[in-house]
Structure formats: C-alpha cells, structure tokens
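In response to reviewer comment 3 from the previous cycle, which asked for concrete evidence that the modeling workflow produces usable outputs, we include below a single protein chain processed end to end. The sequence was submitted unchanged, and the resulting structure tokens are shown without manual editing.
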Amino acid sequence: MEILLYLLTYAVGVLTGFMNVIGGGGSVLTLPLLTFLGLSIGMANGTNRVSILLQNLVSTYQFRKGKVHIIRTAIPFAIVASAGAIAGTFFVVSINQEILKKVIGVILIIMGLFIVFEPNVWESGSNIPKKFKWASYIAIFAIGFYGGFLQAGVGFFFIAALTFLGGFDIVKTNAIKVLVIAAYTVFSLAIFVSKGMVNWPIGITLSLGSMTGAYFGTKFTLLKKIKWIRYVLFAAVVVSVINFFM
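The workflow returned the following structure tokens.
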C-alpha cells in the first residue's frame, strides 16, 4: 500500500511539474495530496517547496538549452521576488483564509477571461509603454510575497505580470517565471527546513515526478504551440478557480 502511495505521489508530481512550467496551478493538486498522505498543512506547504525548487531548476536549464536567453532580464525580477518571498514566508496570515481564497478565485476568473478574449497578448506580449513597466516590479514583489506563504496559483500571477506589465511573449514569460520561482524558493525552502517543516522522503518522491514533468513541459513550451499553451493554461485556471471556491 505504501508503494502505491509513493507511485501516486510520483505521478502527481509529473502532472504538476508539466502544469507549473507551461502555466501554473500545480500546487492546487500537490497540497491536497500531501495532506491526504497525512502531512499537516504547514508540513505540506514546506514539503511542496522541495518539488517547486527542483522542477524549476530543471526547466531553467532546459530553456537555456533551447536558446531562450533571459538570465540578465530575470535577475532583477528574481531579486525583487525573493525579497517578497522572504517576507511572505515569515508572514503570519491575519486575513481569514476563506476570504483570501475567494479573492484569489475572482482574480483567476479575470485572468481566465483575458486568456480567452485577448489571445494576441499571450502570443506576442503586451504593448505597454516602457515608462509604465516599473509597475511590473511592484507586482513581482507582491507575487513573491504571496508565493512565500502559500505558492498555490503563483504561476498564473507571474504570467499575468510578466505578460501584461512586462510585455514579454508567453515563451520568454515562462522562462523568466521558472528562474524567478527557483530563486525565491531557495530562501523560502531554507526557512521551512529550519523549522523542521519538510518531509524529505515524500518531498524527494514528488520532486522526481515534477522534474520529469518540468522537462516535458519545457519541451512543449519551446515548440511555441501558443494556442495549445493557452488552452492548457485556461483549463488549469478553471480547475484552480473551482478549488478556491469549494
């Protein structure tokens, strides 16, 4: 029975690793799985970070092999997001969690509408004037803060900020996103580890699956089948919205 649970963990890791690279929302599946396996929500949140870090490192390497060069562009975003994530990880959530879930759900609905009705933005990036692109750094800090204490759905918010405020196309957006998430997760995971809130056997099993999924997710993104990426992303948003409103 225990072997089956580890196989299930690996399989979910493959699915969520793929999802997280091309869009986001994988933690919406992994967090319930980890609590199903008997981890507390705090331990599940920490254990999930092992998978998040490793899958994004794999994806960053694959994007680099695919000649998507975004390191210099991503470093300032990574620094800003890491600062937000450190604050977010230490943050004691004061707002009612049910209210927070509903707010996030509404934001995701708005994002889903943009995916459907503004397809050109996802394919080629926005045409926002450069003088307004400073706003992307404010958004990245806020998203990093959110990612520091929860993570679930953070990929969607990074995609929105980098696409609509940064003006990047979906391929460069995803490449920047995975590097930024990998960077701030180093700090976030270190805090969880220091508090003894990581289950390593489960975390490594989940990571092996998510690294596999991230590899194929990156290859899929590099094919530049933008239409299909939008469809998968929209489906992931719908699933996440349902989860947040349940």
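The first helix runs from residue 2 to 22. We consider this sufficient to address the reviewer's concern, and the full set will be provided in the supplementary archive.
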